[in-house]
Amino acid sequence: MTPEDLIAVALENPANAEILRRLPDLGVPQAHLVAGCLFQAVWNRRSGWPVDRHIKDYDVFYFDDRDLSWEAEDRVIRQARDLFADLGAVIEVKNQARVHLWYRDRFGADYPQLKSARDGIDRYLSACTCIGIEAGFGALYAPYGLDELEAGLLRMNPVNPQPARFLEKAESYKARWPWLTVVPP
After folding, report:
1. CA–CA separation, 185 vs 81, rounded Å?
2. How far apart are CA 151 and CA 74, in angstroms?
3. Average per-residue pLDDT in the chain?
4. Predicted pLDDT at 92
5. pLDDT over 70, % of the chain
6. How far apart are CA 157 and CA 51, in angstroms?
7. Contacts of 108 (CB under 8 A, 6+ apart)
8. What range defines the domain where residue 37 resides?
9. pLDDT of 173 above 90
10. Is there a contact between 157 and 124 (Cβ–Cβ < 8 Å)?
11. Is 90 exceeded by the pLDDT of residue 110?
12. 99 found inside a domain
């Protein structure tokens, strides 16, 4: 699978296409549409299903370290809610500059202070799910490549080794796409 192939499959989902088209209007730095709505489109296509099946939300990452307050991030979240309101999709917006401030409380593990939105993409639990497309139909970012994604091979991300959380997430994926292969950590 080439980056162009992945983008083409992802854009078959009208919500992905419209989010990417409008994302520059959000006006935040380093905006990317990331993860599940992209890689699940590939798995759905391979399964012979509609590309938007099982997609419960659409994740948007951005990076703005000028104001790390919750209030600043919440303003962007509310702006995104207005921008995408007509899509009927759940859009989850996260400023990657401030994840380290709340991650331990939510997930019980330390999280480094990131330096870019792509640093956040790099840290998904399964290596093949670390993907994002820049706002406005920009470049595909896939630090671990696309071979394991296409093959349905779930391997724990070496940058974020959390075996229990990885296995929990991998089993959740496998329940929806039984043909996936989980590589034990």
Report:
1. 37
2. 37
3. 96
4. 97
5. 100
6. 25
7. none
8. 3-151
9. yes
10. yes
11. no
12. yes
For residue 160, tell me if it sits in a domain.
no
The encoded tokens of residue 116 equal: 């870019």
Cβ–Cβ under 8 Å, residues 10 and 16: yes
Structural domain count of the chain:
1
Residue closest to 159 by CA, chosen among 118, 116, 183, 126: 126
Quote the tokens at residue 175: 């329940």
Mutual angle of helices 14-22 and 3-11, in 10-degree steps: 100
Distance between first and last Cα of the chain: 25
User: Residue 99: which CATH number?
Assistant: 3.30.460
Looking at the domain assignment, is residue 174 inside a domain? no
**Would you say residue 31 has pLDDT above 90?**
yes
Model-level pTM?
0.94
**Is 70 inside a domain boundary?**
yes
3-class SS letters over the chain: CCHHHHHHHHHCCHHHHHHHHHHHHHCCCCCEEECHHHHHHHHHHHHCCCCCCCCCCEEEEECCCCCCCHHHHHHHHHHHHHHCHHHCCCEEEEEHHHHHHHHHHHHCCCCCCCCCHHHHHCCCCEHHHCCEEECCCCCEECCCCCHHHHHCEEEECCCCCCHHHHHHHHHHHHHHCCCCEEECC
pLDDT at position 16:
97
Strand partners, 126: 156
